Amino acid sequence: MILITTQCFPPRRGGIEMLMEGLASNLGGAGHQVLVLADRVEGAEDTVSGPYQVRFFGGVKSWRRRRKARAVRSAVRAGGIEGVFADSWKSAELLADLDVPLVVLAHGMEFPARPSDAKRARIRQALSAADVVIANSAYTADLARPYLGDSARLTVINPPIGPQPDAQQEQLAAADQVIAGRAPVLLTLARLEPRKGVDAVIRALPEVREQHPDVLYIIAGKGDDRPRLEALAAAEGVADCVHFAGAVSEEQKAALFARAEVFLMPARREGDSVEGFGIVYREANWYGVPALAGREGGAADAVIEGETGLLCDASDQTDVTAQILTLLGDADLRRRMGENATKLAHGSGQWAAAVERFLETLH
């Protein structure tokens, strides 16, 4: 049996949640027994299903973490455990000396740019228990490396995706009603927080509209930044060409990707928060949509510049605007990038191509 201990798992939604569920599902699909020890989402039903077992742990964070660690140790003592995957150093903090391989995933945002001495020591202590650390990008590997001792092996595995749903007629019709014949359609799908760069796209729209008067920018996702973004769209005089879609289902997401000319998420650093990879870029790849990403962070692993999209200096508004206009101004470039993106997402970007690399870290 393989154990997965994680703070992030469905029904909670997010990139890490998708990654951890994908890991559990694909390890199970490869014939391994898998037990997931996950944090409970208060107010949500424990209704996930797949080729794995799940035990949810509630209560205050410190108590929950200790109970999960005890459950891991109890399972290891009982025997038959091939190894343990932890979703981050925080989930590995109480797992020293397990006597089975411990593999810790690294995402980027959990490594502060300027950690206190206490935080630095805490991360080092947690990762000292790891046999292998899997970073989601070369950028994240560079962040994790200073915390590792001589015994831990560091490797990079870009987060894979599974096959994405086809766009269905009902959701396409609903998207078309919103679009109402306007073009080009720009899309962002993200948690609404400043570092995602949605504000930079909104600020680019007055200049974009000079060349593309019927442009529509669809922003899908929820978050605390929405009121600020709505006010910004009004202040920039572009509220009429910005549509906030809110949270969307997987079926709605497929329809939006199917109708988008470009996917825009010029993520930037905000304090200690930075994009470690950006699995949503891979989702855009699946549907053949070229992407614009920020150059800082791990997005350079997710978006291959000039091949599947473009990178920009996301803190420089002039560069963000220029790269959007480059994508919109060259249909042949978009077509070529879309073809490359589809090939990547349907091939090496798939879980089927990556699950063996995760399994190899246990040996």
From TrEMBL:
CDD domains: GT4_PimA-like. Residues 177-343 form the Glycosyl transferase family domain. It comes from the Bacteria. Residues 14-161 form the Glycosyltransferase subfamily 4-like N-terminal domain. This is Glycosyltransferase family 1 protein.
